[in-house]
Amino acid sequence: MTKSPLEIVKAMEAALERNDDDLSPYFHDDFKWVGSYGCGTKHGLAEFDRAWHIPFREAFHDCHFVTEHFMEDGDWAACFGHCEAVHGGALMGVPATGKRVRIPYIDFWRIRDGKIAENRVSCDLAAVLAQVGHDVFAGQGWEHKGGASAMPSLSFA
């Protein structure tokens, strides 16, 4: 029986949560990962592991993914949510703080031959850095321009 894009993505997300060592059952041989600014593009699972997955796990410990909503359209699946984790290692030059953080994300995956062929990701690293005491906008963000809330809720309540 062929799995839907959502079934494939949810199985992969469960493997990430378990911190499985081998993610190859979920990814196509020519997998491409396209990340937020500062994270780059990764070609193939080995490069993804070396240049995103391993550094992410070194920076964030005790990760728990809270996906708020999944969507599916043809061979694409998408979601948004956040990862709750402990800032336990250096993050883009900021030493570990031991603080519990919320890492907002949006993911889009294209499925081919029953595996993930492409993953486009946006992680709100500016929000994460703010939680550990580093304002990448140096006080020049636009929160002061108004709106219902200066910052999205990052609390764990």
Show the helix and strand layout.
Layout: H1 5-18, E1 27-34, E2 41-43, H2 45-59, E3 60-73, E4 76-87, E5 100-112, E6 115-123, H3 125-131
Parallel strand pairs: 1-6
Antiparallel strand pairs: 1-2, 3-4, 4-5, 5-6
Write a structural description.
The chain has 157 residues and is an alpha+beta fold. It has a domain at 5-62 and 70-80 and 104-124: Nuclear Transport Factor 2, Chain: A. The chain is built from three helices and six strands; from the N terminus they run H-E-E-H-E-E-E-E-H. It has helices at residues 5-18, 45-59, 125-131; strands at residues 27-34, 41-43, 60-73, 76-87, 100-112, 115-123. Strands 2-1-6-5-4-3 form a six-stranded mixed sheet. Strand 5 and strand 6 (115-123) form a beta hairpin. The mean pLDDT is 90.
Major sheet summary line:
6 strands, mixed
Helical stretch tally? 3
Q: Tally of extended strands?
A: 6
CATH topology of the domain at 5-62 and 70-80 and 104-124: Nuclear Transport Factor 2, Chain: A
Multimeric organization: single chain
Radius of gyration, in Å, reads: 16 Å
Question: What is the spatial order of strands in the main beta sheet?
Answer: 2-1-6-5-4-3
- Intertermini distance: 41 Å
Helicity range? 10-25%
Structural class: alpha+beta
Low-confidence stretches: none
Strand content: 35-45%
- Class of the domain at 5-62 and 70-80 and 104-124 in CATH? Alpha Beta
What is the gist of this entry?
This protein is α+β, with helices and mostly antiparallel strands. It has 3 helices and 6 strands. The chain has helices at 5-18, 45-59, 125-131, and strands spanning 27-34, 41-43, 60-73, 76-87, 100-112, 115-123.
